[in-house]
Design a protein that fits this description.
The chain is α+β, with helices and mostly antiparallel strands and 316 residues long. The chain is 36% helix and 17% strand. It has two domains: 118 residues, 2-Layer Sandwich (Phosphorylase Kinase, domain 1), CATH 3.30.200; 184 residues, Aminoglycoside 3'-phosphotransferase, Chain: A, domain 2. Helix 4 packs across helix 7.
């Protein structure tokens, strides 16, 4: 068995799975399964991701083992493995390529920490498209399918990751008055909207591409019952930082055209998405350099966020 390891990243995100964890993986495949290699996957920011290649029944099986190694995250959400497993089963109804759940270790009894085991999808993250307009349109397509899934019975529901009370405009901003307005809006009532199944962390790093088309949507641990507008808003926030306001607006235009009359845009969701970056000064998301985006820096990110927020305030 070959294990390719890189322990240069903090928090053990690329430390190899234990022998016990790998035995569990092999047992999930079959009694005669033999592991050939274990390779860390690029871009992991909050958990440990490894591709596991096995021989079984004369063929090859390729899986992904995700171990939830962030102790602080687990303290807040001890049901992470169960959550992602439930989300994957629900996402399978969307008609978009998603990893197939093989098994999960709810309490860490097999892997030392809670974990999920899924099939490995083809493709790679693409952050340097040749045509931003075409790419954002294709990026929006899976969301409309995901949002078609009803979620009335789903156990997890949307909530902001920050406490809205006590928020203040950031000191780094050149337009604190726009942040004041955004905070005022998100503290008010939410717009009425249909609740559906949402990804909750839909952005380019969680979408795989193959030959110019989306080949997979991954990372379902945050999925919940919520407003479609938030999913669009969270992706737009990422696109605004990567490509500026134009990229974010291209995505919104694509999503609106695909969703049709069933979707009504409201800037509230964009505003609540952007205030989630508070209170600390924003920097470059570590998942972007992992896939070749090396031109960004903290100053440019802050300038783009200010510009993006100004465009949102104008929509009110």
């Amino acid at each position: 068995m070959k294990i390719v390891d890189d322990t240069s990243e903090p928090h053990g995100k690329t430390s190899p799975p234990s022998a016990e964890a790998l035995r569990w993986v092999a047992d999930c495949v079959g009694t005669s399964a033999a592991i050939e290699s274990v390779t860390p996957l690029a871009g992991a920011t909050s958990s440990s991701l490894h591709a596991v290649r096995l021989r079984h029944g004369g063929g090859v099986v390729e899986l992904v083992l995700r171990r939830f190694v962030d102790a602080a995250w687990l303290a807040l959400e001890p049901d992470l493995a169960l959550h992602e497993a439930s989300s994957l089963l629900k996402a399978a109804r969307a008609g978009v390529p998603t990893p197939e759940l093989v098994s999960f270790d709810e309490d860490g009894a097999k892997c030392g920490v809670p974990a999920t085991l899924t099939t490995l999808l083809p493709g790679r993250v693409e952050l340097s498209p040749s045509s931003l307009e075409d790419w954002t349109y294709r990026l929006a397509e899976p969301l409309t399918c995901i949002h078609a899934i009803e979620a009335e019975d789903y156990a997890w529901s949307y909530y902001p990751y920050i406490k809205l009370a006590g928020l203040e405009p950031p000191e780094w901003s050149a337009h604190p008055e726009h942040w004041e307005r955004a905070i005022e809006v998100v503290r008010g009532p939410r717009p009425e909207s249909r609740e559906c199944f949402i990804h909750r962390d839909y952005h380019p790093n969680n979408v795989l591409w193959n030959e110019g088309r989306v080949s997979g949507v991954i990372d379902w641990v945050n999925s919940c019952r919520g407003a479609a507008g938030f999913d669009a808003a969270w992706c737009r926030l990422n696109l605004a930082q990567l490509y500026g306001v134009a990229g974010a607006d291209m995505f919104l235009g694509a999503y609106r055209s695909l969703a049709g009359a069933g979707f009504e845009y409201h800037p509230y969701w964009d505003l609540i998405a952007i205030v989630e970056i508070l209170p600390g000064p924003p920097g470059v998301y570590e998942g972007w350099p992992a896939f070749g985006v090396t031109h960004l820096n903290g100053e440019l990110i802050r300038e783009r966020l200010d510009e993006y927020l100004s465009s949102l305030v104008e929509r009110l």
